[in-house]
Write a structure and sequence with these properties.
heterohexamer; A: about 325 residues; mainly alpha; Na+/H+ antiporter like fold; 15 helices; about 80% helix; globular; B: about 100 residues; alpha+beta; Alpha-Beta Plaits; four-stranded antiparallel sheet; two-stranded antiparallel sheet; 6 strands; binds adenosine monophosphate; binds sodium ion
Chain lengths: ~325, ~100, ~100, ~100, ~325, ~325
């Protein structure tokens, strides 16, 4: 326990987390500090490209484990399955309508790539290796949760039919394409390719992540401010409980498929994190009646900061204790 | 100069719906439109600003100049997309140069 | 389709005043507005372009659709903010869909 | 509040022509205009989006509020620039505050 | 004297100054070269974050001097006081209205962070250390000058009352929040934090500064072109004389509070430089009758280039001679 | 021949080319992946500044060859002359109108700076030196082709007169000013200046180029998709044949003026490449009747990818064989 706390403490005073905290504080204090939308989008392209590329290089270097396919399958199961658990929980803990609950559930089955990146940074800082293909697992987990959510709504007779072209749009979503594409570029060009561009995608990476998290803090803070009063205590509690449940299930699956300690932690983080890019956009098309304030506030305003600050060190410590690593 | 009577329709709608709206307009025979970026706004679903958004969210404004007789077709096409979504539709009387163009 | 008479008010004003203007509009009971970015312009105070600006400077265009009977309240609210500043206010007659929305 | 009758002219034109258009307007005695960025559009020359462009390409929307009696001069000036190019010109009746300003 | 000239010469052929000159020349020649507004804003976020962070790390490494509080107080005195001197000077040297003169005065009491950054670069190039907390002093000096200017106008019966919310807006202005926030992040995470992100905020810093100054040159050039004829010779002379006066007072105060040579130079630069971001925005709200062309042209078109090219080496040389450093 | 193929093979699996391919594939698959316009413009400013600066430093280090003036003249001849050849070829191979053909011809006389940069990267990867002033030659070749095209149209009685101010606009075009300006900054500040900012303009360069080419791929792909059916087989064949002809003439001139192997290859690449920034914008002003889909698709959709993937290794191999280098 004290180990967990000291780990969490060390995590909390990293420049990355403090940058997020600065953004959050600035937004809550109504500062006019902003990062232009184009720059934020540019940074996210950079982060996705870098993380995908490095994942691909890792796979090309260490070869494809026999656990790769199993892990991808585990990711699919998690992304399809977690929304069902989330939905049941929401029905118990909150008074959200079926549609709102399904929309929220979709977010928790999907993933937050920035949380994943932050976890990767923490692991690197502690010299813990992880399977390079976890990036591909992240990509695989982005979309299926959306289908589960639509099924939940359709089952309740509430519409939720797939708008034409939506499936294609989700699968060819910019983040997925970029992550998978750069993963393949990394896998093809390998260490040699990495050497050519590592001064761009490796060394400055953490610094860019700081500015990106500054922006995330600003957005989360503004979201929290604007949605004051939208959420009850039950919903907020859900946004903390669900990651704990998700990460536990993720840990179990990660151990079953035989991942390394680092891989298990990353699978826990993917399970625990909630989407705030791909899924919200899909929800606006597929479930327009669902209230965006609800799902964005939970995902970005509560779960994201929770995972970033306390969640990641907690999952790491738990995995270390359970696996004896 | 010679001008021609037209309607100017302005549709403010969520960005993820942009392609669906322009597809619907095209199917309704609308031959031209202009899309303006939107920086922020306020309505029944609250206040928002572009800088406070991530991903594809946010809104856009689609402006169509059309012959008056095509207005109803356009509005119906637009409405199927706008109906359940966040957004507003407004129409003004206008004159245009070069009627052959639309 | 059924439409409702409305006024479309377009206010071009300096960006540092944006929040003051929208606050004034809200206080005057305006329930919706859309803010468009402005790239440049020219007026009595000279020519300017967005690329030639630093910081928060520059201008924005605020578009409000309102019921005709609320026009005067809106204009008065807007005018208190616009009065001493750089900017223009214009009004057009419009029709809107979904009157319940504004 | 007291308002004054005016015309609102909206010209959507290719960005490389922007300076030529505003020069022509200025020469025609137009004392004010506002330039809005355009994100994309569709017309006789096909569909385009800002993100799919490089360099100076793309389009802009120039909005002028003028006294009705100056409309013809403005349209003629605009037309010399727009004529052979991609773009549309539309005119709406408007009211403005502060007539001394334009 | 020849020392000053050779110092100025060396300064003038640095990539930083030449980039500014390129921008200025391009704008005066009416080239369509532009740097997108979002990118320029992104670079300024980067520069503020980097300079604040490095200042914080320096403080965490060298500890808090006993001169810290005195220097902050000196900064407050300068920012409140310099506008009064500037105002008196403007009344003598120019025919500007009371409101215009007060608005200009506000700019000269406040500071230009880019001038500060450029001076830091020059000091680093000459291996002259400076107190890390000078960044905090810069932040402190941003706002008070605005109050002095409003007081000057109010005293003259010309309005200038504080618009509601303006004070808060000024204090929570993006640049101040970012500078102070990253200063604290640097102070908290210290050398260890710096190590993690120095490949982002230290090594490429000067290069980013070049592109940023290219953009400043473009903006200054366009401003000069558009405001041709707005300014009389008296106003232009003011924009060169005032920095000399400001820097002299800054030097005196810096010596009184016991700053190092580097610290004195930076305080001189802060005193000599004029704001072109925070103050103009505040003036549009608080003194809309003041003509923006006047204060922007003086601050950005005359004083900024003067400080960047001749001012900084001059202040350094003067401080070296006076302190015997 | 097998040498050419293996060279081409090595080129094709570089991160740079694969990033372009990813963008192309994403656009053709209708993914919503985009890089914000402002960020793309920011990257192009970065690339132009870096390439110009490095060219200038190279000139300051190795001195001005006696071949410099000859090469600049050769560049002028190529830029003026290639459009005439292109025009004749288009008249034979396609059914394009006189105006459309002239507009296309203008593009092929001018240059693509990104193709030039990619070729520089390939040369560096193979440790082949090139004259630093080739960057200046690139700048010189941007504009003259436009004049040839207008002359071709005017000769046919089809208008094409120089719009007032157009000449100035073309010469003071942002890319030219930035390239030439940073070339002079590099030449003036030399190795010392480079050292100060090389962590910004040298080490991360290739990585930025990857993201930039990702964006070029997206744009080229969207262009191809939207202009389906606009082009006949003849026009597409032209877009492959013309670079071969251009590069051959470029090689001959490069050998005549006595360039090094690297210099010859770069002159070939300049001759082979087609503009897609400066010339299209000029054409919209000068030849508005010409159809932009035609020239943009040929230049950006066919010739650019051809040069990037097959062209560059082919020109290099050819030059090596012919010069015996
Ligand atoms: N009355 C109005 N006038 C102008 N724009 C409006 C109005 N109402 C709504 N909007 C725009 O439409 C968006 C969504 O509106 P709503 O669906 O009411 O939340 C707002 O964010 C505004 O950008
Ligand atoms: N007549 C007009 N038509 C359209 N926009 C105008 C007009 N006059 C002024 N503006 C806009 O309002 C801004 C400030 O105008 P002014 O207060 O006259 O300097 C200009 O930069 C334009 O963006
Ligand atoms: N009917 C229309 N309504 C609104 N915008 C139009 C219309 N027609 C054309 N445009 C705009 O003008 C641009 C060029 O049109 P065109 O010259 O018809 O290709 C389009 O890309 C649109 O942005
Ligand atoms: Na999850
Ligand atoms: Na000062
Ligand atoms: Na060429």
């Amino acid at each position: 326990m004290s180990e967990i706390l000291s780990l969490a403490g060390a995590n909390l005073i990293s420049p990355i987390i403090l940058s997020f905290a600065l953004g959050l504080a600035a937004a809550l204090a109504r500062s006019d500090l902003t990062i232009p939308e184009a720059v934020a989008k540019g940074m996210s392209v950079y982060l996705l490209f870098a993380i995908g590329f490095k994942g691909g290089v890792a796979v090309s270097a260490h070869g494809v484990d026999q656990t790769l396919i199993l892990t991808v399958l585990a990711g699919l199961v998690l992304s399809f399955g977690l929304p069902l658990i989330a939905f049941a929980l929401l029905k118990i803990m909150t008074g959200l309508s079926r549609t709102d609950a399904a929309a929220v559930a979709a977010h928790y089955g999907s993933i937050s790539i920035v949380t994943f990146v932050a976890a990767t940074s923490v692991l690197e800082g502690r010299m813990i290796d992880a399977e390079g293909y976890m990036v591909a697992v992240a990509a695989v987990m982005e979309a299926p949760a959306i289908l589960s959510a639509l099924w939940l709504v359709a089952r309740g007779g509430g519409g939720g039919a797939m708008a034409p072209g939506l499936m294609r749009e989700i699968m060819l979503n910019g983040s997925i394409v970029l992550l998978v594409g750069s993963f393949f570029i990394g896998a093809i060009t390998g260490e040699k390719g990495l050497e050519e561009i590592s001064a761009f995608i490796v060394t400055p990476f953490k610094g860019v992540l700081c500015l990106f998290l500054l922006d995330m803090g600003l957005i989360a803070g503004r979201g929290l401010r604007q949605s004051k009063g939208v959420l009850g205590a039950g919903a907020v509690a859900f946004a903390v409980v669900m990651p704990l449940i998700g990460s536990t299930i993720g840990m179990a699956l990660g151990m079953m498929v035989g991942l390394s300690l680092g891989g298990i932690v990353l699978l826990m983080v993917l399970s625990a994190s909630a989407s705030y890019i791909a899924v919200p956009a899909a929800m606006r098309v597929a479930l327009p009646e669902a209230n965006p304030s609800v799902y964005l506030t939970l995902s970005l305003g509560v779960t994201f900061p929770f995972n970033l600050t306390l969640g990641i060190p907690l999952y790491l410590a738990t995995a270390q204790i359970v696996t004896g690593g | 100069m010679e001008t021609h009577t037209a309607k100017r329709v302005e549709i403010v709608i969520e960005a993820p719906l942009e392609r669906r709206l322009t597809d619907a307009l095209t199917q309704a025979g609308v031959t031209g439109y202009t899309i303006l970026p939107v920086r922020g706004g306020s309505g029944r679903s609250g206040q928002w600003t572009r800088e406070g958004q991530i991903g594809r969210a946010g809104m856009v404004a689609v402006v169509c100049l059309i012959k008056p007789e095509r207005l109803d077709g356009l509005l119906e096409a637009a409405f199927t997309v706008v109906e359940k979504h966040i957004g507003v539709v407004s129409i003004t009387d206008a004159q245009v140069l070069r009627a052959e163009r639309f």
